Automatic annotation (TrEMBL):
It comes from the Bacteria. Its EC number is 3.1.3.5. The keyword Transit peptide does not apply. It comes from Parashewanella curva. This is DUMP phosphatase. The keyword Hydrolase applies. It holds the Pfam family Hydrolase. CDD domains: HAD_Neu5Ac-Pase_like. GO terms for molecular function: 5'-nucleotidase activity. Signal peptide: none annotated. InterPro entries: HAD-like_sf, HAD-SF_hydro_IA, HAD-SF_hydro_IA_YjjG/PynA, HAD_sf, PGP-like_dom2, Pyrimidine_5'-ntase_YjjG.
Amino acid sequence: MKLSQYQWLLFDADETLFDFDAFSGLKHALSQYGVNFTEDDYAEYQKTNKALWDQYQAHEIDTNTLQRQRFHTWSQRLNVPATTLNANFLASMAEICQPLPGAHELLKSITPDVNIGIITNGLTGLQQGRLHNTGFDQYLDLLVISEVVGVGKPSPEIFEYAFERMGHPEKANVLMVGDNLHTDVIGGNRFGIDTCWYNRHQLPNETDIIPTLEVHSHEDFKRWLLS
């Protein structure tokens, strides 16, 4: 049984265990101010948000600045503090978050036999709320959030931080599972652990990043683990 090979399974969070629908979250958060948030509005927001995340990853700004500045335009339009808009957005994202098909069943079935951890690039308030609301927190032996560490995947520092908290297991006994080749898979590969690409949309791999395993559903992954 493949599962017996591993002491730890490390999962990504967004789009691996639950959805990340930022458009719906923003639409929900801004509707209380009478805003009909559109796809064009979302494209404008994402342009700013992505630039700020790039600055954050380069250690040029902190998370407070990121969260405040991404709502600067809407703060001016609505005459509402950016911090309030950001808090409403985080609350909306936690409220509308849905587990991906088979995720709960997978974790419930393997929890007695292996340690479960999450390594996620994100903000503490958002991820903790979503994990609690979806019930995934009940399965966790480890939660590592990039905001706390100061770096995100694929940086080896976040994996080193996780391994220290895990008690330094053998790398051969750890598997990283995630939907993103450029963060989850390459990060795990470079750190020297096995990787599983959770490719639920069955996208072609047009990179030179090769996972140990590719699955298209949590049911596929469960069957592989128990084989």
